[in-house]
Design brief:
Elements (H helix, E strand, L loop, with lengths): L1 H19 L2 H12 L9 E9 L6 E8 L4 E8 L2 E8 L2 E6 L2 E3 L1 H6 L4 H14 L11 E3 L4 E5 L2 E10 L7 E6 L6 E7 L13 E11 L2 E11 L5 E8 L2
Antiparallel strand pairs: 1-2, 1-14, 2-3, 3-4, 4-5, 5-6, 7-9, 8-9, 9-10, 10-11, 11-12, 12-13, 13-14
InterPro entries: DUF6503
Protein name: Aspartyl-tRNA synthetase
Organism: Winogradskyella eximia
Length: 239
Amino acid sequence: MKSFLALAILLCSLSGLSQNLSSEALLDNAINYHDPNGNWEHFNKTFTVVMTTPKAPKRTSVISINLPAEYFNVTATKDTVTTTYTLDKGKCQMQYNGKVLDSLKAKDKNMTCDRATLYKNYYSYLYGLPMKLKDAGTNLSDTVEKKTFKGKDYLVLKVTYDEAIGSDVWYFYFNPKTYAMEIYQFFKTDEHGKEKPDSGEYILLSEETLLNDIKIPKVRAWYYNKADKYLGTDTLIEE
């Protein structure tokens, strides 16, 4: 009986801590779970992501991110076409089926250096979460929400960005016991900055692997917020 009461008191105490957790403390706990040794700022790794979508061929992307060297490369293959975007200290190069393109030939293939930057930001953001939430221009909500999503309880961090970065509103769902990031979700906004409830997507994260000793989700399943329509899945393939 005493053991039961002690356990009950402990659980209530932990629950109270979760309720009173600040947004900064939640983020710090999540980063401590995913990147306890602060390795993200020195990230240097090549990894493969396979994207599968309904009624479409798979796309295999080999991605290299070297943050200290300011280097990014993505080589994506779909059907018989392989495209490569490289940014090396800001210098852009593009290839189509292994052949280097000048800007005019790249434009004919619908390839641009702006797209290279888009891919760099996209992959660095998604695979750098939750550490990227420490970046300048990221605005954390004042409070931590408690939500239930698909029958499971989460601690939820609302995030907005400075106007120069983006207008979407993001929500990050963390396991209340381990602080592992398990879902993220975003909504578009109208001209008044109000969320559009039927817009945006949510992404379910599952499994984990280590990249540079950082815990990275292996599987990301994408859905529209509207009607829970399935979009596709990104799977990180371990080499």
